[in-house]
Amino acid sequence: MDQSDKRRIVEALILGSSEPISAARLAEIIPYLKPAKAKELVAELNADYIAQHRSFEICEVAGGYRVRTLAEFAPYLQQTQKTRPLRLSQAALETLAIVAYRQPVTRYEVETIRGVDAGAVVRGLIERKLVRIAGHREVPGRPMLYATTRRFLEVFELNKLEELPTLRDLQELFPEGGLSESDSDDEETSASAAATEAGADFGSDSDAASKGVASAPTEPASDVSPAVSFAE
Question: What does the pLDDT read at residue 48?
């Protein structure tokens, strides 16, 4: 099997996978292929797409690879969507950001930071598969712990949690937003700012979350490339 054949198989596997497929998994499936070589083949495929002026590219998200259409085609693709885009309220975005930065976190800890009851919001995030139950804290009452899901990474175009913006990043995003070094331990400030920025970005037509997906025809596009916006 030559490199051309391996590259075609890599492309087929990424296209046909119902979820992002990692370089390690590609190496397991394709004989005599190392994960590092799989990454090289993906880079070659993307180079070919650029040279051929194709309307899609391979993106690395949630620890794996997925084929997605380019952002410039979002306005056209949105007209074919039968399902409504994922809509998150300000409260949901703030709660999601707190879970993302503090995970695993209890509902009580979320409510302490936000200052309001978070039960309904947390349940809504679980229903949307953005938050999951991650066990129980070994204290009296054994409260449930919450953490983000792989779908959270996909929706917000993250490959891993370490790519979440840091306080320094937020200071650059909001130079006049009042974030200062004294806020470094203020999880509510940083989490809320990150949530607001994420909501603003993902509500636009040109962002990556609005992209269509070139994937297996059995997979609903709304499950893999939702647009995120503020609820009215």
Answer: 94
In 3D space, the residue among 122, 114, 125 whose CA is nearest the CA of residue 143 turns out to be 122
Query: Which residue spans within the chain are E strands per DSSP?
Result: 56-61, 64-69, 86-88, 105-106, 131-136, 144-148, 228-230
Q: What is the DSSP letter of 33?
A: -
What does the angle CA 208 – CA 210 – CA 92 come to, to the nearest 5 degrees?
95
- Token pair in block for residue 69: 């259409």
Residue span of the structural domain in which 222 resides: 3-82+205-230
Q: What is the pLDDT averaged over residues 11-22?
A: 91
Same-domain status, 102 and 24 = no
Does one domain contain both 112 and 128? yes
pTM, to two decimals: 0.53
Mean pLDDT of 194-200: 42
DSSP H or E stretch at residue 113 = helix 107-114
CA 49 centroid distance within chain: 23
Are 74 and 98 members of one domain?
no
Q: What is the pLDDT of residue 172?
A: 67
Rounded distance between C-alpha atoms, residue 97 and residue 183, angstroms: 16
**Whole-number pLDDT of residue 3:** 84
